[in-house]
Write a structure and sequence with these properties.
Blueprint (H helix, E strand, L loop, with lengths): L1 H18 L1 H7 L8 H20 L4 H23 L9 H17 L5
Helix pairs in contact: 1-2, 1-3, 1-4, 3-4, 4-5
C-alpha cells in the first residue's frame, strides 16, 4: 500500500542518515531551492512522495504539508540520534517506529481531502 511505501521511505532515509552521518550533516546545510537546478532535483525527489499520496487520494496541498512534516521529523530525529541527544532507557528504534505509526495515522485522516 501507499502507507507501506511511506514507511519504507522513512526507514531508508533513517538508515542512510545514521550510516552516512557526514553526508547527512552536509545535506542539512544547503538550501534546496536556491537555484533552478537544485529546485528541479528537489522536485524530482518529492515527486515520489506526491505519487504515493495521490494514490491515497490526498490532495496536492495536503501532500505539501505531509512532505514538510515527514521531512522535519526524519531530519530532526536522525540529527538528534547522530548526536546522541536521546537519553532515557527506551530503545530509540521503538521511538522511531512509534513516531512513524503516529504520523501515518495522521496522514490517513487526510484521505479524500
Amino acid at each position: 500500500s501507499g502507507y507501506d511505501a511511506i514507511r519504507a521511505m522513512c526507514y531508508a532515509f533513517h538508515e542512510y542518515a545514521i550510516e552516512n552521518q557526514g553526508v547527512f550533516s552536509t545535506m542539512l546545510w544547503y538550501n534546496q531551492f536556491e537555484n533552478e537546478q537544485m529546485n528541479e532535483v528537489t522536485s524530482k525527489m518529492f515527486s515520489i512522495f506526491f505519487k504515493i499520496t495521490k494514490s491515497l487520494n490526498i490532495s496536492q496541498d495536503n501532500c505539501i504539508h505531509l512532505v514538510r512534516m515527514f521531512r522535519s521529523f526524519l531530519e530532526g530525529f536522525a540529527l538528534l540520534e547522530n548526536h546522541n541527544a536521546f537519553g532515557n532507557t527506551q530503545l530509540i528504534k521503538d521511538s522511531f517506529e512509534l513516531s512513524i505509526d503516529i504520523l501515518i495515522e495522521g496522514a490517513k485522516k487526510l484521505e479524500g481531502k
